[in-house]
Write a structure and sequence with these properties.
The chain has ten helices and ten strands. It is α/β, with parallel strands linked by helices. The strands form two sheets. Strands 3-4-5-6-7-8-9-10 form an eight-stranded parallel barrel, surrounded by five helices. Strand 8, helix 8 and strand 9 form a beta-alpha-beta unit. Bound molecules: NADP nicotinamide-adenine-dinucleotide phosphate (NAP). The site of NADP nicotinamide-adenine-dinucleotide phosphate (NAP) has 27 residues, from strand 10 and helix 10.
């Protein structure tokens, strides 16, 4: 597995990120979700992405209580807009994840600059939680949106991490062209933000046989620190880890040859 700095956040992550968005629907218990996370950790996936809204924080919490906390980097999200809502959400995340701190907390699904401005109350709660040592890094996800929202989040001095959509054909993206979106991703990367990409396999909406090529495209995107895949079972871990390793080897060979 390839490990790298998550932009200028000071966090070290695995290039492959376990997107835990679907565990609530695919695991029959928190314990079985925890076992899947531990298997991923065994395979070197130390970067875990969840959200309060996914209902999968308790699954991760099951795993967290069986390891040393510093073995993993946990990124979660809240859709809360105001101070009280975000404060309560942070406390719930800490409880469900069975941890004393969140490595990364994202404003969930920012769609427009106005949407970002409307989260100022939540951001205030993030600032206080960060000062209290409950959050390390603040960021946002922009879901499937590009255009002005990307300008706004890249320019924001307190947003150190951006989770955004990118895949081989620019599918699902709304608000601007794919070519321009790739420029935005580069700008965020060059600005030192931690950049994660999702929808790399179009939320599963491509033929099974095509999965490796689409996942490989994600790993070849050098301006993304992390490739977030919505893993739901053990075969996904095997395939995704194998592709992550192969891509790292190939890029290393190319760099040596250059
Ligand atoms: N706004 C936001 O911040 C936001 C929104 C969406 C997602 N996310 C994050 O991004 C993660 C990825 O979600 P996504 O919507 O972008 O989906 P994705 O990773 O593009 O696709 C995931 C789906 O693809 C299928 N799949 C088939 N082969 C796979 C493989 N080898 N590895 C992984 N999945 C495979 C799985 O469905 P089957 O189980 O049916 O095979 C899985 O549900 C989520 O888990 C979540 O952490 C964030």
């Amino acid at each position: 597995m390839e490990y790298l700095a998550y932009g200028k956040t000071g966090l070290e992550i695995s290039r492959l990120c376990f997107g835990a968005g679907h565990l609530k629907h695919t695991c029959d218990s928190y314990a079985s979700g925890g076992e899947l996370m531990l298997k991923a950790l065994d395979e070197g996936i130390i970067f875990w992405d969840t959200a309060e809204g996914y209902g999968s924080q308790p699954h991760l919490g099951e795993a967290v209580q069986q390891i040393r906390r510093e073995e993993v980097v946990i990124q979660t999200k809240t859709g809360a807009k105001n101070y009280d809502g975000a404060s309560q959400s942070i406390e719930r995340s800490l409880r469900e994840l069975q941890t004393e701190y969140l490595d990364v907390l994202l404003l969930h699904g920012i769609a427009t600059p106005e949407d970002l401005a409307s989260r100022e109350g939540a951001l205030d709660a993030f600032r206080d939680a960060k000062a209290a040592g409950k959050i390390r890094i603040i960021g946002c996800s922009t879901h499937i949106y590009t255009g002005p929202v990307m300008d706004a989040v890249i320019a924001h001095p307190e947003i150190d991490v951006i989770l955004t959509t990118a895949n081989k054909e620019g599918r699902m993206l709304e608000g601007g062209s794919f070519a321009r979106h790739l420029d935005y991703i580069r700008r965020a990367y060059d600005a030192g933000k931690g950049v994660s990409i999702m929808k790399v396999i179009v939320a599963g909406d491509i033929p099974e046989a095509d999965m490796p090529a689409w996942i490989e495209w994600g790993f070849n995107l050098e301006t993304a620190h992390a490739i977030n895949l919505g893993i739901t079972d053990y075969p996904h871990i095997t395939l995704d880890v194998g592709l992550a390793r192969a891509s790292a080897r190939r890029r290393l060979t190319q760099r040596k040859a250059a």
